[in-house]
C-alpha cells in the first residue's frame, strides 16, 4: 500500500475585528484585495503549497472571526496548530493592546506541548495608510515582540501587497520547525471488483 | 472474557447421525443421515438453575430416503424446505406432507432462504427468495407473501460451496477459490476474494489479494501456525449479519463485507484456528473450530467465550443458537444483557461492555443510555487507574464529566482546592449495575511517579482548557437569556452561580497544573478573564515567588490595594519587580476611579525615586489624562515643591492648560523655590535657573493674575518680576520706575517702552512716562537728563514736543535738543504732507462720485400714449410704473412678477 508522507502546517490567524486578517490571507493565497469589509463568521481556511528550505509543505491557513474572541471555536480548533499569527492594525491602538490577551487565550486554549517555544508571528497591518494616522510605532511593536520572547515582527499592507509574502514565508518556516510530522495516509481505495467480473447473461 | 451464553445439552447420544439442524420458535428440527426428521419442542429454562425441557414431538422415519442435508422454513408459505437426495423439497409445516418436489433442482447441493418485508405498490409484502445451487448454476425461486412468483436461473463459474442472501437482491456465494457477490437484477457477478491466502493457494493471487492484506493481519502466517496445514485450503464460509452485512471466512479470519462488496470494518476477526463453521447470534460471531467453539464480539473482535465441544460440526444462525455434533445437540442461551454487562464491569472490561451496549437493541436493557454513560465514566476512571491518562481524559472530555470528579483523581497538589463534598460524589451510582466494588477502587488514591504525574497533568490541562471554555460558553448563554428577560429566574441565577463555582474549580486546577508543568502559562491564565480562587492563587503564587503574575491576577480581580501593597513589599527584592517602575506602571493604568489609591501609593515611590515616579502623572497614557489636575496639584504641593513645579510645568507647557490657578501656583512655587534656595549660598545656580524660568514664564504666560502675585512678591527683591507684573496691570510708570531707579537698567526700560508702546492710545504714552521718570524723579533727586535725551533722540517722534518742552528743565542746552527737534519737525512735516495728499485724493474721489450721481440722475424714460407694459401688454398710461436698470418700463404692480421671471434683479 502506498502512502505519501506530507507535511501539513496548520496556521491560525488571530486579532481584533477589522485588522485585516482575511485580507492578509486572501492577498497571500489569492493575490487579491477588496476594500469592502465583510466580517468573517466562525472560521475559514485556505491552503497553499509553499517551498520551505527545499521542502514542499502545505500550509493550511485558518482565518478566524475577530469579533467572537474564542467563543464559538472549540479548543479542538486550536489544537494542533503549528504557528499562530497575531495581527493588529498599526492605526488602531486598541488592536495592538489586545494582542497580549489574544496570545494568552491562544496558549490556554491550544495547550501546545511546549508553550515556551510555540511560534508566534506578529503582523502590523495597514501601513499603507497615511503616517499621521499611525498610532503604534514600529519601535513600540518591536519592543513588545521582544519582551514576549523575540516574536518575529512584520509590517504589512494587505492592500498593496507589501511584505505579505515575506511574513508568510517566515510563518511557514517557523511552523515547520514546530511541526510534528503529520502523516496523511492516502490509502488506495479498496477495490474488490476486478476484471474477472463477468456478465453471465440471462439464463432464460 | 465473560460468559455470554450458558450451554445446555439438548440431545445426547442420538442413535441417528445428525446431518442438519434448524430451529424456529421453540421447535428444533433435526435431519439425519438416513432421512429421518426429528422435531423437538425445546422450552427455555425460566431460571438460572432450572434444566432445559426437551420433548420429542415427531419422528418422521420415512421423511426421505436419503440423508437430509439441509433444513429451513418459509414461514409465509408455511413450508419446510429440505435438501435431500439432490432435490429441494417443500413439505407442509404442520402435517409434514410433501407439497412439491422442485424438479428443476435435480443435482442440488445447497440452498439458501431469505425473507424480508418490503413495501411494494404501497403495501408491505413478505418477499421470499429461495436460491438453490445446482452444479454450475443457481436457481432462484421467488414468493410474494404466500404466492409463488417466478424462477430464474443464473449460471455460475464453479460449484457453489456455500451461499447466503444479502438483502433480497444480492446473493453472496463461496466457491472453492473465491467469494463472489451476484446482483440478481443484473446477473452481474462481482468477485471478492479468495478464502485462502495467496501463499497457501499458490499462483492464484490476484490484485485483490493485496487489498485484503490491509484487512487481514496475517497472524496465521506470522505465527506460522497454519503452515502445518500446508496445502489445506480455506473453506468458504458465509454468515449473514444485520444491516446487509456479511461475514466471510478467510482461513483464520473473518472479514465483513457490505452489499457493495466493500469491507465494512477496518479489521477482520481473528480466530484462534481455522473455523469449520461460522455463525452469528446477535451481537456475537460464533465459530466452530476443530476442538472447541469460539464466541467473539464482532465490534471489538475480542474473544468473549470459548467452550469445549468436540466433534461439533453444525450450527444454527440467529437468535436461537444450536450447535450439533453427529449425535449431540447443544443449546446456547445468552445471559441477559444487563447480567453480561454487569459481569464485564466487574471484570473491568469496560470496552467490551460499552461495545455490547452499543450493539444491542436498547429495549433489552433498562435505562441503557444512562448506563452507557456511567460505564464509560467507569472506563475512563479505569483508564486513569491504569495510567492511560490521555485516553482517560479524552473520554472524560467526551462524556463531559464534571471537572471536580476528574480533578479529584489527582493528588492534593492539584486537587486540594476541591470542596470536600465534591470528593464524596466522585462516582455515579447507576441503577442496574452494581458498581460499589468499582467505586471502592476509585476512591483509593492513585500513586504516580513524578514523570507520570506530569504526563497526567499535561492531559488534564487539555481537559480543563476544554472545560473552561464549555462552561464559559454556557454561562454566557445563560446570562444572555438573563438579559433578554427583564424578570429574574431564581433557578437561572442558581445555575449561573453553579457555573461560576465550576469555573473556579476548573481555573484553579488549571493554574496549579500550569504551575507544575508550564510555569510560563501561569501569567497567561491570570491575565485573561479567569475565575481562579483568590486565596489559593495568592498562596500558590507567593510560594513560588511569582509576584508579577500575582500582580496581574490582582489587577484582573480589581484587588488593586493588594497588588500595590505587594509591589511595595517586594520593591527591594532583586529581579524584574525591583524598584518603583512596576508600581509606576501599575498606577499609570488605574485611571481616575482609583485616584485615592494612586495618591496613597504614589507617595512612597515619589519619595524614593521622584524622577521615575512622576511618570504616574506626566506620562503619555490615556488614563493619566483623565486624572483631575487640581487634586494632583494639591497633593504634590503638600508632598514636595519641586514635584509640584514639575507637574505644573508639564500641565502648562506640554498639555497647554490655561487655567489661571495653575499659572498662579506655578509662579508662586517658583518664588517659593527661590526663597527656599536663597537660604544657602550653594544654590546660586539653582536660583538663577529658577529665576530665568520664572521671568520667561511671567513674560510668556497670559493666564496668571498679576494683582494676586504682586502682593506675594518680596518687597526688597524680584524687581524685574515686579516690573513685568506691573506692566500686566498697566502700571507702566511704576514698572519704568523700577527699571530706572531700582535696576538702573536704561536699556531694559527702553525695551519695555518699545514693547509696550501703543500709538493708538496716546493717553498712555510709555515714552512720555519714561521721560517723566527720568526728568521728574521722586524725592527731589537730580533729573536724569542724559538718558532722557537719548530717548528723545531715538524715539522722539512718538512724543508730543509740547509735552516734552514742559518736562525739560530750563537749563537744557538747545543744541542737545537739536536732533530731537530735527526729527520732530521732519516728522510733523511728513505727517502734514501726508495729510495733504490724503486730503486731495479724497477731494478727487468726491468729485468722481458727484459726476456719477449726476449721470444716474440724468436718466429718464418717456411714457407716451403707446408705451405698453411688456408684462401685461397693457398701456402704462397714468399708472405708477417701475423702470428696470436696462430701461424696461413695467407697471409698478408688474415689477415683482417681471423680476421673478428673471428680468434684471432690482
UniProtKB/TrEMBL annotation, chain A:
Pfam short name (any one): Ras
SMART domains: RAB, RAN, RAS, RHO
Transferase among keywords: no
Keyword Nucleotide-binding part of the UniProt annotation: yes
CDD domains: Rab7 (cd01862)
Listed PROSITE patterns: RAB, RAS, RHO
Gene Ontology annotations for the cellular component aspect, listed alphabetically: fungal-type vacuole membrane; late endosome
GO biological process: regulation of vacuole fusion, non-autophagic
UniProt entry keywords in alphabetical sequence: GTP-binding, Lipoprotein, Nucleotide-binding, Prenylation
UniProt-recorded Gene Ontology molecular function terms: GTP binding; GTPase activity
Family annotation (InterPro entries): P-loop_NTPase, Small_GTP-bd, Small_GTPase
PANTHER family, per database record: RAB FAMILY (PTHR47981), RAS-RELATED PROTEIN RAB-7A (PTHR47981:SF20)
Family affiliation: Belongs to the small GTPase superfamily. Rab family.
Name of the protein this chain belongs to: Small GTPase superfamily
TrEMBL record, chain B:
Annotated membrane topology: Peripheral membrane protein
Location of the protein in the cell: Endomembrane system
Similarity section: Belongs to the VAM6/VPS39 family.
Matching InterPro entries: CHCR, Clathrin_H-chain/VPS_repeat, CNH_dom, Vam6/VPS39/TRAP1, VPS39/TGF_beta_rcpt-assoc_1, VPS39/TGFA1_Znf
Membrane among keywords: yes
PANTHER family: CNH DOMAIN CONTAINING, VAM6_VPS39-LIKE PROTEIN
Domain of life: Eukaryota
Any single GO CC term annotated in Swiss-Prot or TrEMBL for this entry: endomembrane system
Naturally occurring in which organism (per UniProt): Mortierella hygrophila
Protein name as annotated: Vam6/Vps39-like protein
Annotated GO biological process: autophagy; endosomal vesicle fusion; intracellular protein transport
Annotated CHCR repeat ranges: 617-783
Domain CNH: 15-322
Keywords assigned by UniProt, alphabetized: Membrane
Pfam families, alphabetized: Clathrin (PF00637), CNH (PF00780), Vps39_1 (PF10366), zf-Vps39_C (PF10367)
